[in-house]
């Protein structure tokens, strides 16, 4: 029986309190690196403009439980049109997808490394995510104040609190092996041939797949809810002190801040050129095309 997973939530009373927490997280990272003999991941951050929202991908919201095989079929169908409108090329995409279909995902170290025989698939998926196509990728940033902008920009009237999540894939204990439970894995930051937003936002991405209990085709692997894959057993740090062995990997913490701090926060961030223009958020034709293509593909394939 698996232990219950939950995000540890910190309720902060002000923007200044969050800035203090960022300093604490930096100290924790330094402490982990000093005391652990293997890799320690730098923390990633994700801002959400309503603290009641979970860690859902855009694909989770539209088609929960989609298989890896179905998703790869969709993106392969749209590749020629994306290349025409964007002027970019992903020439080995079909070759890589065919290789996965032929050999099976289990033959490739997809989750523990970034192998060359799947890199075009990953790069193309990131490009689609950056332009709004429903995706199994959850976007993060290595820059906490850029995450704060995404939390506060466009907050709906009546929202009480925003949230900023932190994610650390590896805490310095042995890296989690991919067992029967879903596991979130990080992609980035070096992803070429994508939108300029990627670098402007210091973007990185996670995705979560559930390994099948039987069958090893691409249709047997299902995209899973990220919240099934957080705080994996083994290790946790709090305040720079090793206090328990309850989380080993995919460590997620949640910081909520009053939405009423919005004006103060956005003014502070604007002074550092953290705004829509600086983050490359102006709307482009590719975004509209991808939204339309998703709707067309979903209707045609009845997924």
Mean pLDDT: 80
Shape: globular
Number of helical regions: 9
Give the helix level as a range of percent.
25-40%
Radius of gyration: 19 Å
The biggest sheet amounts to: 4 strands, mixed
Low-confidence stretches: 110-114
- What topology, given as strand order, has the largest sheet? 1-10-4-2
Terminal-residue CA separation: 32 Å
Using brief descriptors, characterize the structure shown:
303 residues; alpha+beta; 4-stranded antiparallel beta sheet; 10 strands; globular
Report on this model:
The chain has 9 helices and 10 strands. With about 300 residues, the chain is of the alpha+beta class. The chain has one domain. It has a 4-stranded mixed beta sheet. Strands 3, 5, 6 and 7 form a 4-stranded antiparallel beta sheet that branches. Helix 3 (about 70-85) packs antiparallel against helix 4 (about 95-105) and helix 6 (about 145-150) packs across helix 8. The model is unreliable at about 110-115 (pLDDT under 50).
Describe, in short, the structure shown.
The protein contains 9 helices and 10 strands. With 303 residues, the protein is α+β, with helices and mostly antiparallel strands.
């Amino acid at each position: 029986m698996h232990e219950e997973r939950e995000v540890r939530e910190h309720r902060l009373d002000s923007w200044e309190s969050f800035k203090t927490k960022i300093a604490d997280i930096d100290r924790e990272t330094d402490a982990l690196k000093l005391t652990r003999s293997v890799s320690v991941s730098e923390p990633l951050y994700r801002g959400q403009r309503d603290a009641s929202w979970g860690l859902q991908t855009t694909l989770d919201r539209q088609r929960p439980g989609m298989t890896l095989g179905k998703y790869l079929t969709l993106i392969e169908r749209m590749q020629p049109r994306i290349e025409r409108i964007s002027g970019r090329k992903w020439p080995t995409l079909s070759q890589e997808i065919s290789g996965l279909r032929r050999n099976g995902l289990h033959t490739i170290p997809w989750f523990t490394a970034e192998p060359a025989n799947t890199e075009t698939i990953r790069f193309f998926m990131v490009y689609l995510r950056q332009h709004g196509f429903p995706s199994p990728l959850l976007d993060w940033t290595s820059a906490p104040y850029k995450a704060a902008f995404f939390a506060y920009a466009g907050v709906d009237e009546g929202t009480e609190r925003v949230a900023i999540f932190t994610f650390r894939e590896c805490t310095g204990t042995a890296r989690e092996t991919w067992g029967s439970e879903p596991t979130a894995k990080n992609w980035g930051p070096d992803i070429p041939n994508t939108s300029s937003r990627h670098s402007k936002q210091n973007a990185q991405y996670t995705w979560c797949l559930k390994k099948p209990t039987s069958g090893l085709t691409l249709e047997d692997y299902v995209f899973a809810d990220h919240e099934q894959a957080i705080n994996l057993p083994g290790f946790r740090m709090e305040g720079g002190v090793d206090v328990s062995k309850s989380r080993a990997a995919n460590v997620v913490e949640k910081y909520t801040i009053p939405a009423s701090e919005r004006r103060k926060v956005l003014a502070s961030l604007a002074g550092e050129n953290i705004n829509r223009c600086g983050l490359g958020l102006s709307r482009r034709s590719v975004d509209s095309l991808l939204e339309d293509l998703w709707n067309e593909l979903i209707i045609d394939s009845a997924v």
